[in-house]
Amino acid sequence: MAAVIPQAAATKPSSVAARKSRTGYLLLFPGIAWLGVFFAIPLVTLFATSLQTPIEGKTGKYQPGFAVGNYADAIAQYWPQFLRSFLYAGTATLLALAIAYPLAYFIAFRAGKWRSLMLVLVVAPSFASFLLRTYAWKTILADDGVITSTLNNLHLLPDGRILNTWIAVVAGLTYNFLPFMILPLYAALEKIDPRFIEAASDLYASPVTAFRKITWPLSLPGVVAGTLLTFIPAAGDYINASLLGSPKNRMIGNAIQNNFIEFRDYPMASALSFILMAIILVLVFTYIRRAGTEDLV
Amino acid sequence: MRWLRKNFIGIFAILVLIYLFIPIAVIMVLSFNNPVGKFNLSWNEFSTDAWTGLCDVPGVCSSFVKSVEIGLMSTLFATILGTMISFALVRYRFRGRSTTNLLIFLPMATPEVVMGASLLALFLNMKFPLGILTITVAHIMFIISFVVVTVKARLQGMDPRLEEAARDLYAGPRAVFRYVTFPLVLPGILGAALLGFSLSFDDFIISYFNAGTMVTFPIFIWGAAQRGIPVQVNALATLVFLIALAIVLGGQFVNYRRRKKLEAPLAVPSAPPMVADAMSRS
Amino acid sequence: MTEQNRQVEDLHLQNLTKKFGEHTAVDTLNLTIPAGSFFALLGASGCGKTTTLRMVAGLEDPTEGTISIGDRDITGTRAFERPVNTVFQSYALFPHLDIFENVAFGLRRRKVKDVKPQVERMLELVELGSMARRKPTQLSGGQQQRVAVARALINQPDVLLLDEPLGALDLKLRRQMQIELKRIQTEVGTTFVHVTHDQEEAMTMADTVAVMNSGRIEQLGHPADIYELPRTVFVANFLGQSNLFQGHKTGVSGEDYVVSAHAQNFAVPSARTFTDGDSIIVGVRPEKMTVLDASDAGGIPEHHNRVAGRVTDVSYMGVSTQYLVMTSWDQELTVFEQNVVVGDRSAVGDEVVIHWSPRHTFGLNGAAGTSVGVDPDVLELEAVNQALAADVVEG
């Protein structure tokens, strides 16, 4: 015989299963602990900070408290920024969806062997600095630049400029988060068997009808995922507003940053963050309720 | 006109791709600019000064190096932790799966302001000094989720029969992992690491909140945005972009060559007529 | 070229049971597979054959029972400790290794020093010597299948398990691979256990066939024996086809039972009847029957069993012609006649008499009913076709 197969002692099934389960917990623990300590707990700390009260006589210093009124103050003072953030983010998301869907459709169904290359090209711009890309729009949308001049000549610009208006901010948001819309859309579209569409044609559906009845519904998970992944970071962004907008266009992210870094009004900043987080969590949980948690990760 | 309608989607797609690259082109072109004054916003005259003197402006290179350091450290830890979680999720049974999935997903769905702010609140309350450590800790935190998503997908896509075949062929648990599971998961892990590094390197908001006086490359750019961004920044950013693009395209090219080899006609060796018959038909 | 001269031992499965929760996949299996034989486990999907195979391989743990090779009890050992190798249905070739390393895998894990000569010899055996450095995805289905066989065989296992290995191949290639595998088994002398749902494949390749149904073995034996003499309705219907008549014993005539079914009398040899009760199902294989025009019925030998009917379908199949004949009690019988005389065929609508020798008749326990073992999809399809036809006619 070529090699001797050793006779090992019989292992009891139950201990093998138990060992497997323990290893699972061991593998899980470090990463989950890290997330627990540096993601979950800070959110708790954030909440605690939002309830702090100022210490008499010492500006910039706070003590633990239960000042729920901080939240009322936060909303009263900053509700325009909240509204603006959701408006800008919402508009940007819709624009991104309109721009991304045809591209994702093309890559999924028409691109053939160019598919991988096109996906690389979609992701590639993200390799250049986010800040610089946003900053570049200051050049592209400059008052004396081609685009602004052309639109001005067509009398399409109410303010005579794009930069330092909400238009530039929304344009920036749309551009920056476009890949986050394209990729989930592509992932969902790619899963659709083209033979479904062929079957629809066979059963007398026009291309538009086939899209409405077959492709669009089947791509909905991707639409929802892309919408979430675009809207959420856009709502919290403040870079676009800072670089491309005027003080009239400041978003809630700006307010949070100012309160934390400049004003050092930690309770206010924390309350603002928490409100933003809460609103977004509502959106996320609505999505989860529909789709379950297994597809999240 | 008919042609236009038929190819509308294709034309639209190309236009969107061009749209995605316009700012990149602007960045690259302006890296060869010699601007009037401090603001590098519009073209003045051609110059390679920024490229030849990459570190001439104080802070540019030091912040760049800091970002690379932080990127490497955080990617290393996040990839290890994230890969471990992926294996646990795909291969093992445990209680609290929904909660775990949620905890992993939430950082990807939370606005960076909230994550940056909450970590800052934690560090402030603990009176922990802000600096390179806090930045790295923060980066590891938000990269883990992306690693899990990437590696988990790769693991789930692996044929479970392959590991059974290895066990059938005398591979014990450690050998199965070493010779079958790990080599097949490795591309996913490397992809996740690449993704993690790029996320860390380009991160601004979370870093800004938790940096204290430490300056990373994005923080430097933000600070310079008000005063005028040095042309060197454009040059460095272009460099990073080109290197990353080269790596990814290189990977694509290798795959392309590998696929080309599959299509090459297979040589028919001399064999007994029956088998040769079977082979020519298979 | 003989790979080895070694003592191969019998494989014993004793009281082997596997339960998945409430569902019993394998039910108290007792089986001895003789050393060096080509053994087939035949059954429909879900009958437990693959589960049995995986338990022998060590990829599933039995709920009860033991598995032994000769005197060695291997039940508690893990897959990588057993001298058993598997050829998987999807081949499961390692995509990141080339053919050489795939085949060498088992040897390397067993710390064999110089694998090159053995690997090259094995690749020659399966006619793939020139493919050693290619990757599995560069090979055709048939070639991948041979690599899977080589990868398993090179380890000289006591038992080689094959899990429907030919399922993915097209018909002609499958036939050739069946012959190849049989040739290899004869040369190498290892015990082969082949799991399949294709009864022709099982009968072609195996020395012994075990027909499995719902976790149990219905019948076991040499292919010819179990085909010519099925002992249960399931085997009669699953292995090939049978015409079955539900009846009861009315008397004895010499060595035959007289069974009355549908107001006809049939002679069934008592030696070919497997029930003591009076409820008997009379069975006969389609190829044992002859179709005669009703006007020629006088020429039928006295002692033959006979049934009258009308031809409802004639299918010319090259080698043979298949007739469907409707009886007076609305049962459609199937007859295969070899096309010996060209052109001499009955036509649809003809009144005919079918006859066959009692020697080819068998008797089964009448309790089960005559459709056990027929593919339920086929039964449904027949019902649907009848409904559709009626609908079109009335429509």
If you had to describe this structure to a student in words, what would you say it looks like?
Chain A has one domain: MetI-like (MetI-like fold). In chain A, a hairpin with a 7-residue loop joins strand 1 and strand 2 (62-63). Helices cover 72% and strands 1% of the residues of chain A. Chain A contains eleven helices and two strands. Chain A has a two-stranded antiparallel sheet with strand order 1-2. Chain B has 282 residues and is mainly α. The model of chain B is unreliable at 265-282 (pLDDT under 50). The two termini of chain B are 46 Å apart. Chain C has 395 residues and is α+β, with helices and mostly antiparallel strands. In chain C, helix 2 (99-109) runs parallel beside helix 4. The model of chain C has no long low-confidence stretch (mean pLDDT 90). Chain C starts with 10 loop residues before the first strand and ends with a helix. In chain C, a hairpin with a 2-residue loop joins strand 11 (243-253) and strand 12 (256-261). Classes of the chains: A mainly alpha (297), B mainly alpha (282), C alpha+beta (395). Chains in contact: A-B, A-C, B-C. Chains A and B meet through helix 1, helix 2, helix 3, helix 4 and helix 6 of A and helix 2, helix 4, helix 5, helix 6 and helix 7 of B.
Concise overview:
With 297 residues, chain A is mainly α. Helices cover 72% and strands 1% of the residues of chain A. Chain A has a single domain, classed as MetI-like (MetI-like fold, Orthogonal Bundle), CATH 1.10.3720.10.
Main pleated-sheet profile of chain A: 2 strands, antiparallel
Largest β sheet strand count, sense and barrel closure of chain B:
none
Q: What's the level 1 CATH class of chain A? A: Mainly Alpha
Cα end-to-end separation of chain A:
49 Å
Number of helices of chain B: 13
Q: Please, what is the CATH homologous superfamily of chain A?
A: MetI-like
Fraction in helix of chain B: over 70%
Order of helices and strands of chain A: HEEHHHHHHHHHH
Proportion of beta-strand residues of chain B:
under 5%
